[in-house]
Amino acid sequence: VVVAAGSGTRFGGAKQFALLGGRPVVAWSVAACREAVDHVVVVLPPGMIEESFGADLAVTGGASRSESVRNGLAAVPPEATVVVVHDAARPLARPSLFRDVVGALASPDVAGAICAVPVADTLKRVAHSSVDGSSCVVETLDRRALVMVQTPQAFVADVLRRAHAGGGDATDDAALVEATGATVRVVPGDPRNLKLTGPDDLTYFEHLLGAV
Ligand code: CTP
Ligand code: MG
Question: What is the pTM of this model?
């Protein structure tokens, strides 16, 4: 399931359709995914499902990322035993990353697998003043215990379906699966597998694409 139904508020428009190396961002994400899985469902904004950007099926998304995933999940063939969820906004993910997260599900007690990278910067918890919006440090965190999480994320299909059955909202699917008590394994991500977020990112992504 490639989720591409966001509005790109921080980017200033639907970033998933911006051209990267002459090809829409979402098409890059679908193409990488396709190398590693049997069937791709792409989730698009309302009124945009005539084009599927290389996916087998296009469906309409919802108001939140989790809702969009649920719409995609509902269109996954019921016989699928593994479901991989990927953000369209990560067009630089390589097919090997998809294979890595799927491969991690081979361990019998593992219900989900995510890819993540170590944190380079010092991390601090801060409190924001409601009076003037300024921030002060509350504490410094141990960054060795923290990772930055990417997509793709792979799940045992029934576990993911159950995790989404409650209709919850989270910034990734693993959070909903974690809440069920299931084990989520972490595999090494790729520092270049960045999420297209702000307006300046596209130039940097073009540069990375040339270097990949
Ligand atoms: N997404 C989605 N449906 C939504 C919201 C997000 O399918 N209702 C998708 C986005 O298209 C993106 C991925 O989820 O591929 C990650 O979300 P994010 O990077 O936050 O994208 P946007 O929500 O579009 O951007 P912003 O938060 O800046 O508005
Ligand atoms: Mg968003």
Answer: 0.96
84-120 pLDDT tens trace: 999 999 999 999 999 999 999 999 999 999 999 999 9
Distance from C-alpha of 112 to C-alpha of 96, rounded to nearest angstrom? 17
Q: What is the pLDDT of residue 211?
A: 64
Report the nearest atom of ligand 1 relative to the CA of 88: 15
Select from 87, 153, 202 the residue to mutate for testing ligand 1; criterion: most ligand atoms less than 8 Å from CB. 87
Compute the distance between CA of residue 195 and CA of residue 90 in angstroms, rounded to an integer. Answer: 5
Give the distance (Å) from ligand 2 centre to CA of residue 5.
10
